[in-house]
Amino acid sequence: MTTADTTPPLRIGLLGTGPWARNTQAPALAAHPGVELSGVWGRRAEAADALAAGHGTRAYTGEEGIDALLQASDAVAFALPPDVQAPLAVRAAEAGCHLLMDKPVATTVAGARAVAEAAEKASVASVVFCTLRFAPETSAWIAEQAEVDGWFTARAQWLGSLYAAGSDSEYADSPWRREKGGLWDVGPHALSVLIPVLGDVEHLTAAAGPADTTHLILRHTSGASSTVTLGLSAPPGAAGVEIELRGERGTASIPGWAGAETAFRGAVDALAEAVRTGVPHPCDARFGLHLTELLAAAEAQAQAAG
Q1: I want to staple 211 with a disulfide (CB 3.0 to 4.6 A). Which of 79, 150, 215, 233 is the partner?
Q2: Non-local CB neighbours of 28 within 8 Å, separated by 6+ positions
Q3: pLDDT tens across 113-137, in order?
């Protein structure tokens, strides 16, 4: 006879009601067997009401609604612009809530550092949702390649067509993405793969390309180098994601993955494990701070050169 699992579900509240919340976070949280979706907060009451009703939970709005949702939750997930997310993550940590944040944590080093310090001070667990670190197919590939010695160089290319002529993506309406471009939106994904495999970045060079495209040349602590191309304005026929490693054993290319909702469920599992064990996840708020430091340095270089 097996003993039934009596572990109570992790109560996770969701801050945000936009496309990312509707398409990824809310359905993943509502369907997760170890989670109780404790509520949805939105700036617009009608959006919060609609999303909450669709997933059988309570809607919150206004400043008092944030405090009420934090009080009703063990953890909070964020589907907000990064520089809205960061101060609310500090507030959530101070209220004792664990943090499941979107990337980037913030677009300023000061903002990301405040989150990391608040999480550390409050002793709350944190996970930053870099998709490829949590999708089952890609996370397994990253772990496998990290065990391999002798990588010589790598090439990462993440080009979207969000802002290409004729695009009708609902994510194109995001003001912060339009302002900050591919460097900040998809740069965290590429860096979150390269760093665990090749080592931390000890030298970075950045240059601007067409539209919002940014090119990076990275030197890693392992001695390997990598090149990264990031953008959201490529023609549709040129869009795509490729990450390839080359070294003593030949080449290795990252596999495809099932989608963001499946990956987000993996991030929820990772947060739950960090809460249970007290062991920080590699993609925690400190790692999110480091990503912001690298991206801010790259942005400054690209702007100076441009």
Answers
A1: 233
A2: 261, 264, 265, 268
A3: 999 999 999 999 999 999 999 999 9
Token digits for 120?
């550390």
Check: CB of residue 138 under 8 Å from CB of residue 254.
yes
* Phi then psi dihedrals of residue 118, to 5 deg: -65, -40
Q: State the Cα angle at 142 between 89 and 30, rounded to 5°.
A: 45
Q: Contact, 188 vs 291, CB < 8 A?
A: yes
4-to-1, 7, 8, 32 alpha-carbon distances in Å: 9, 9, 12, 18
User: Strand runs (DSSP E) across 45-200, as ranges?
Assistant: 59-60, 75-78, 98-102, 126-129, 151-159
Q: Are 60 and 36 in contact (CB under 8 A)?
A: no
pTM for the structure as a whole:
0.95
Among candidates 36, 27, 17, 23, which has minimal Cα distance to 79?
17
